[in-house]
Design a protein that fits this description.
single chain; mainly alpha; 2 domains; two-stranded antiparallel ribbon; 15 helices; elongated; DUF222 domain-containing protein; DUF222
Length: about 300
C-alpha cells in the first residue's frame, strides 16, 4: 500500500466510523423510545448503556443527549454525520449550540444549524467550531444576540457565585494543595493583589512564574495579617499559633507545630518568630498549659533589619 493509499484508507475508515456512530445514536434513541432500559430492569437509560457498552455513565448520558438532539432539532446534523460531512465530536458541538437556542424557537434553531453546517464551519476542529457556535446567534439573529448575551452573563455570574469554593488539603509530604473556583470579579481582585508581587526580584531570581505567584499569594496574606485590620477571632485579632520546645528551637532539631496541626522545621519557626508577637507559655509534661504570659513583640523593626 502506497503512502497515498494509506492516507486514503484512514480517511475512509474515519468516514465509516462516523456513519456507524450516526446509526448507533439512532438505535440508542429507539431504545429510549421503547423504554427498553426500564423493562430490562435498569434504573435509567444511561445506566443500561453503561452496563451494555462498558462505558462511563457520563459518556452514556452524553450519547443519549446527542441521540435525542439528532432526532429532533438537529436532523440536518444527523444526516451530515451519516454522510461523513461532520464527525461525532463536531456533531456534539453543533447539537449543544442548537439545543441551547431552544427558547428562541425552531426557526432560529434551524438557521443556526445550517450556519454551523456551512462549508466554512465543517472544516473546523471541534474547539474552533465551538468558538463559532458561541457566536452563531449574532450571525442568524443579531437582534436577539445582545439580550441572549446579557442572560448568559447573568447565568454565568450566578453559577460562579453558587460554585465559589476554596480548599487547602495537606498531602502528607510537606505540601498543601490549594484548589477552588472564583467568579471573574473575585478572580480579578486576587489577580490585582498578587500581580505586583509576581515581578522577578532582580536578574538572579531563578523562581519560575508559578513559584513567584505562589510566593505572591503568601506575601499578600502576610501583609493582610500585619495590618491588624482582619476580623477578630474569639475576641483576638487573627493569630498563627505555633508551639515548640525552646531547646529544640535553639538547637534546630525536632519540629514546630502550627495550630492547624501541620509540622514545620525549626528554621520556619525562627522566621515566624521574627515577625511575631510572642506569648510565653509553660507546658506541663502531658502538654497542658500551666502558665500563659502576656503578648510582647521581641523583634522590633530595627532589630529585625539588623538580623543576618
Amino acid at each position: 500500500m502506497s503512502d497515498n493509499e494509506l492516507s486514503d484508507e484512514l480517511v475512509h475508515l474515519w468516514a465509516t466510523e462516523q456513519a456507524v456512530a450516526a446509526r448507533r445514536l439512532g438505535v440508542i434513541r429507539e431504545i429510549d423510545g421503547r423504554d427498553l432500559a426500564r423493562r430490562d430492569g435498569a434504573t435509567s437509560v444511561a445506566v443500561w448503556l453503561r452496563d451494555k457498552l462498558r462505558i462511563a455513565v457520563s459518556s452514556a448520558r452524553q450519547m443519549l443527549a446527542l441521540a435525542h438532539a439528532l432526532d429532533s432539532s438537529c436532523r440536518a446534523t444527523a444526516t451530515a454525520l451519516a454522510d461523513g460531512v461532520v464527525n461525532q465530536q463536531q456533531a456534539q458541538v453543533i447539537a449543544n449550540a442548537v439545543t441551547g437556542l431552544a427558547e428562541h424557537g425552531p426557526a432560529v434553531q434551524a438557521k443556526a444549524e445550517q450556519a454551523l453546517l456551512d462549508e466554512k464551519c465543517v472544516v473546523l476542529e471541534p474547539a474552533a467550531l465551538a468558538v463559532a457556535a458561541d457566536r452563531v446567534l449574532e450571525h442568524v439573529a443579531p437582534e436577539l444576540a445582545e439580550e441572549q448575551q446579557r442572560k448568559d452573563l447573568e447565568a454565568a455570574e450566578k453559577r460562579a457565585a453558587r460554585d465559589r469554593a476554596f480548599t487547602m488539603n495537606p498531602d502528607g509530604t510537606g505540601r498543601v494543595r490549594l484548589s477552588g473556583w472564583l467568579g471573574h470579579e473575585a478572580a480579578a481582585i486576587v489577580e490585582a493583589a498578587i500581580d505586583p508581587l509576581c515581578t522577578p526580584a532582580g536578574k538572579h531570581d531563578d523562581r519560575t512564574a508559578t513559584q513567584r505567584r505562589a510566593d505572591a499569594l503568601t506575601e499578600v496574606c502576610r501583609l493582610a495579617s500585619a495590618t491588624g485590620e482582619l476580623p477578630e477571632n474569639g475576641g483576638d485579632r487573627a493569630q498563627l499559633i505555633l508551639t515548640m520546645r525552646h531547646d529544640d528551637l535553639l538547637a534546630r532539631i525536632g519540629h514546630g507545630m502550627l495550630d492547624t496541626g501541620l509540622t514545620v522545621s525549626p528554621d520556619v519557626v525562627r522566621r515566624i518568630a521574627c515577625q511575631a508577637s510572642i506569648i510565653a507559655a509553660v507546658l506541663g509534661t502531658p502538654g497542658q498549659v500551666l502558665d500563659l504570659g502576656r503578648q510582647r513583640r521581641l523583634f522590633t523593626g530595627p532589630i529585625r533589619r539588623a538580623l543576618p
